[in-house]
Design goal:
- This protein starts with a strand and ends in a 10-residue tail after the last strand.
- By secondary structure, it is α+β, with helices and mostly antiparallel strands.
- It has two domains: about 70 residues, Pre-PUA domain, domain 1 (Nuclear Transport Factor 2, Chain: A); about 80 residues, Roll (Archaeosine Trna-guanine Transglycosylase, Chain: A, domain 4), CATH 2.30.130.
- The mean pLDDT is about 85.
- Strands 7-11-10-9-6-8 form a six-stranded mixed sheet.
Length: about 160
């Protein structure tokens, strides 16, 4: 991923961002004072930098927290999370999509296209951010097949982005 353009966000853009975050995630990501910037990339994703660190991804009308935002949070307690078995970790952290047999637990009431944090079974550490291909109820009913698209994972270009 390559940064094409970068500019500071206006106060109104920052307020709009945090209104969208509150609508999508409740009070999980409170506003913090600092420098906010938008980086347009060569992909269909823009990044919001907070004090020069990738904090959020903007994709269409959705705001997705970057993985580093979850390092101090327990993924097991989040309502929008998926826990995968230990055998899936190697694949998930290499960018593979999540298959049904690897899903151990999933947050209730999640709809198709919802963003989820994917954590490991043993420690609950965040491994990736993905979008659901089916609702959480449908995923639990399935026995096989791809159920989550992996869009951002530990060690990818967003994780390693230095600006």
């Amino acid at each position: 991923m390559e940064v094409k353009r970068r500019h500071d966000m206006s106060k109104s853009e920052v307020k709009k961002l945090f209104r969208r975050l509150e609508e999508q995630y409740g009070d999980t990501f409170p506003y913090k004072k600092g420098q906010y910037e938008i980086c347009e990339t060569d992909k269909d994703v823009s990044l919001v930098l907070f004090n020069a660190n990738a904090s959020f991804l903007l994709k269409k009308d959705n705001v997705v927290p970057a993985l580093k935002m979850f390092l101090d949070k327990d993924v097991r307690t989040l309502p929008y999370r998926v826990i995968v078995d230990m055998g899936a970790i190697r694949f998930v952290t290499n960018g593979a999509d999540i298959m049904r047999p690897g899903v151990v637990d999933i947050g209730p009431g999640l709809d198709t296209d919802s963003f989820v944090v994917i954590g490991d079974e043993r420690h609950g550490k965040p491994l990736a951010i993905g979008t659901l291909l089916f609702s959480s109820d449908d995923i639990l009913a399935k026995e096989s097949g791809k159920v989550i698209l992996n869009i951002h994972f530990v060690g990818d270009k967003i994780w390693n982005l230095e600006i």
